[in-house]
Amino acid sequence: MARLQYQLGGWAPGTRLLLADSPTALLDRLRSQRQGDHAFQRLLRTTEITQHRLVGDRARERKELRRLKANAARQRQAKRTVERRLAQATERMRRARAERAARAAGPISRAALQAVPVSASGGCAYSPPPKDGGGSDEKWVAPVKDYTLSAGFASSGKRWAHTHTGQDFAVGVGTPVRAVGAGRVVETSCGGPFGNQIVLRHANGYYTQYAHLSRIQVKEGEWVRAGERIGLSGNTGNSTGPHLHFEVRVTPEVGSGVNPVPWLRNRGVDV
After folding, report:
1. For residues 254 and 99, what is the distance between their CA atoms, to the nearest angstrom?
2. Cβ distance 247 to 104 under 8 Å?
3. d(Cα 197, Cα 190) in Å, to the nearest integer?
């Protein structure tokens, strides 16, 4: 048997046969070898199956990753589209509010435009404020003194295509106009329906507008105190007589106004 196994290339089993003490010991060794071979083959098959599964899992993971990346790209594109459309809608709303305000103010006459005085300060009627521009210890004050309330908020008539967007204070040309509260000058402009105008932003988030001025006496970016003189009343823009057009807004844009009279009264200013 040993010779035959050697000739067939099975030297190890032959060695076991020669070195075995008894047939029983030889059979035990051969049985243990077969069991070990079977266990090794099972382990080898299990390893191959696991490797195949890992390869499949990695392929599925790569496919899922590509899908997630494609979804993320689509979401980014959709976000950009939504942001662009939102910006366009916001711009359309802003233009629509400006157009409504312009229609509410009525057409701008040639005489009104020609009545706007021009200076070297951006084409608007600007003059330096007095050395003592005033100011008050009060937190809130009326925009002018010695006035008569004329056209009120949301009133209607032939002068406006829609309702009135502020409160008018009838005063003579050249009446000092005061900041109703401390705030930052965010806009000064001239030549439109409101003529020479100023817009302030206050710490409470509200904005106030002062329109139809004859002179602007502050510049954009300046900080002013409550009661400080910021300009002179006039009759510029679309105006049928000397007065101050005063607005309170929740944004700097035209069309976001609230009723100025109760707003001032809620802050201790009786007008």
Report:
1. 9
2. no
3. 6
Q: What is the pLDDT of residues 62-118, one digit of tens each?
A: 999 999 999 999 999 999 999 888 888 877 776 666 565 555 544 444 444 344 444
Q: pTM (2 decimals)?
A: 0.54
Region for 124 from its dihedrals, namely left if φ exceeds 0, alpha if ψ lies in -120 to 50, beta otherwise: beta
Report yes or no: 116 and 195 within 8 Å, Cβ to Cβ: yes
* Helix (DSSP H) and strand (DSSP E) numbers for the chain: 5, 10
CB atoms within 10 A of CB 143: 26
Distances in whole angstroms, Cα of residue 127 to Cα of each of 83, 122, 218: 42, 12, 8
Whose tokens are 């191959």? That residue is: 48
Q: Do the Cβ atoms of 97 and 256 come closer than 8 Å? A: yes
Which among 212, 165, 206 has a CA at the least distance from the CA of 182? 206
Q: Which two tokens stand for residue 143?
A: 């925009």
The 3-class SS string of 108-132 reads CCHHHHHCCCCCCECCECECCCCCC
**C-alpha span between 15 and 228 (Å, rounded):** 115
Crossing angle between the packed helical segments 23-105 and 11-19, to the nearest 10 degrees: 140
